[in-house]
Amino acid sequence: MMFWWALPLTVLLYLAVKKLARHYKSPLINTILLPALMIIGIVLATGQDINDYQAGTQPLHYLLELVVVAFALPLYQQATKIRQQLAPILICCSVSVIISVGTTLLIGGLLHAQPSLLASIATKSITTPLAMSVSETMGGIPAIAAGLVIIVGMMGAIFGFPILKLAGVVHPEAQGLAMGAGAHAIGIGAAAEVGPVQGAFASLAMVVCGITTAIIAPPLFHLYLWLTLG
Description:
Blueprint: H1 2-23, H2 33-46, H3 50-56, H4 58-70, H5 72-77, H6 79-84, H7 86-110, H8 115-121, H9 128-137, H10 142-166, H11 172-194, H12 196-229
Helix pairs in contact: 1-2, 1-3, 7-12, 8-10, 9-10, 9-12, 10-11, 11-12
């Protein structure tokens, strides 16, 4: 039963929440979080098999691959601005990765967290496939890395722009970079709804931060192990 209802149910819930978000400007009315929670509730309440739901929504998974490629369009449209500010962008994204991974290792070390858990958490701010791959190379648990990426992305999509507004960050380019660096693909979706410039720079930040994390995170993690474990 759930196999046949999965796709129309997902689309209808998304459209309903999107319409609701237009009328009520609240960060809590998120088009990713609320439909996901509703579907989880429906699956649990009806006792349906989650595997049937996943199989029924397989066409959406194929479309996701096309969506990732489509992120290149706003980058092309903002190519002139990106070229003019390329050096500051690369520096900001690299610093954000160092801060993200460094604070994770520092706090984890103070709490005496297991190295495998730290390796899984350190990649929390990049997109899921990269996070799983990079964390696994460091001895982490890919499933934990994927779960944390989703949580961080949703939190960024909900609270990202309100926090940026509170901090006085009003430039579209800066907003986009912050969302892409902190909330990866889910943040890009939220940024694109605000404006094309925010969406383009969020896409760029996700790409740069993903590559930078893959390069920087393993050496930082091994340095942490050397300093703490000897």
